[in-house]
Amino acid sequence: MSINKSFSTETSERYSRALFEVSQESSELDKVEDDVKIFQSLINTSLEIKNFIKDPTQNLSQQNKVSRLLAERLNFSKNLKNFLLLLVEKRRIFFIQKIFDSFLKLCSKKRGEIKAQLISSRELSKTELDKISKDLSESMGSILKFDYKVDKELIGGLKLQLGSIMIDTSIRSKLKKYEQGMIEN
After folding, report:
1. What is the pLDDT of residues 95-109, one digit of tens each?
2. Which long-range contacts (CB under 8 A, 24 or more apart) does 30-33 make?
3. DSSP-assigned beta bridge partners for residue 167
4. Cβ distance 31 to 75 under 8 Å?
5. What's the total number of domains in the chain?
């Protein structure tokens, strides 16, 4: 295990890699990715499901029954269904959100996508977001996928976080620089 990674992170990455490889080998990667997104959405919207997954006191047969039922009702691929049952059997189901986050990162990486965070001072239209994404993707040589947020406190402008690179063109940032300059002089 890596010195810098927690047990849950290390374990989640191993399981997500296994799901990724099995899905890729069986040519079901796109289907599994869609199913994972559906499952994540379910976890985020259903407090009952979230609590059920996070509760370590649930017995194995109950977790198996619920996992099977969810997989069948949501028409999950055979690989994802078996994967969920494996997580239950190995008592790793409570890592599911980390595992799925890691899995989706692997899928994005395979497509050559880079995740970036974009924050604007006002709501941007789909056209504006697409233009920003297209322009930055061309200059970066990779496809950019944004986690987009609106922060009215920026006053105007944008903030872009791409890995360790931060581009801040917001008015709030410029005002802070002026304020700092006035304090220092």
Report:
1. 899 999 999 989 988
2. 31/77, 32/77, 32/79, 32/80, 33/103, 33/104, 33/107
3. 160
4. no
5. 2
